[in-house]
C-alpha cells in the first residue's frame, strides 16, 4: 500500500494491485487512531486483537469505520483481488475528538441484566461496517488516481468528513440534508447512511473462517444452486458439519442463516438501485411479493423504502 503522511498524523493510503494471498502474516501493533476503509474491489480479512474484520466488495464497494483507543495487535489473514483496490484514511483520536463528533456505539443492545457496553471513546476497539454512497465511492476513485499528494490529502479529508458526519447524524437520528442553504439551488451531497454492511459478519462477534467461505460461495453461485448440500460441497465439508458449525457460531439453524444471506444479497442489490424483480431473482425469489414480505420481516424495510434510500444517495 502506498501511504502519504501529512502534518497532524493524517494519512491517506491507496492499495491497487492484484493480490492472490496474504503477503504479510506478521503480527504488528496499531496505535490509537480513527480509520476509514473503502474497498472498491477484492476481499480482505484481518484481525485486530481478538476481533476479525471483513471487507468484501463482491456485491459492490464496502466500507469500514473503526476507532482504536489503545495499542492493539493487527494481523492480515486473507487478501485477494484482481485487483485488490482499497482506500484508507487514518487520523489520531485526539484530532477527531477536537474537530468532529465521535462515532456512536455499534454494540448490540445489552441483555436485561448485563452492564451497558462501553462507548466508542472508552472501548478498546469500536467497529462499524457501512455501505459507501456513490459520492464516497467517487471520492475513493479520485483519491486512487489523484496526481499529487496535496490533491490526495484534500480528497481524503472530504471523505473522512462525509463518513464522520454520517456517523454523527445516525447517532442523532437525523435525516441527511438533501438541499443547500436557503436561497441556493445547488444540492449538498448527503453523507453516507451508516447502513450495516450486511454481507459481512457482525464485527462485534468473532467470525469463523467457514462462515466467511459460506458467504462467498453464496454470492458467486447462481441463486438456483444455493442449496445447503451444494454449498456444503463447495465449502469442502459435509452437510452435517456445516449445519453444526453454523448453529455453534450463530445460534441459528442453517436454513435460517441461508435465508438471511439470500435476503442480504437482495438488500444490497436494491441499495444499488436494481429493480425489485431483478433483486428478488438475485436473492433466489420468483415472486416480488414473497421477496418483499421476507425483507420486511427480516430487516423491517420494504423494497420501496430501500430503493428510496438508494435514490437519495444519487447526486
From TrEMBL:
Assigned keywords, A-Z: Plasmid
Domain HTH araC/xylS-type: 212-309
Renumbered residue ranges of the record's region Disordered: 98-124, 171-195
Matches recorded under InterPro entries: HTH_AraC (IPR018060)
Keyword Mitochondrion part of the UniProt annotation: no
Residue ranges, compositional bias (Pro residues): 101-119
PROSITE patterns: HTH_ARAC_FAMILY_2 (PS01124)
Tagged with keyword Nucleotide-binding: no
Official protein name in the record: AraC family transcriptional regulator
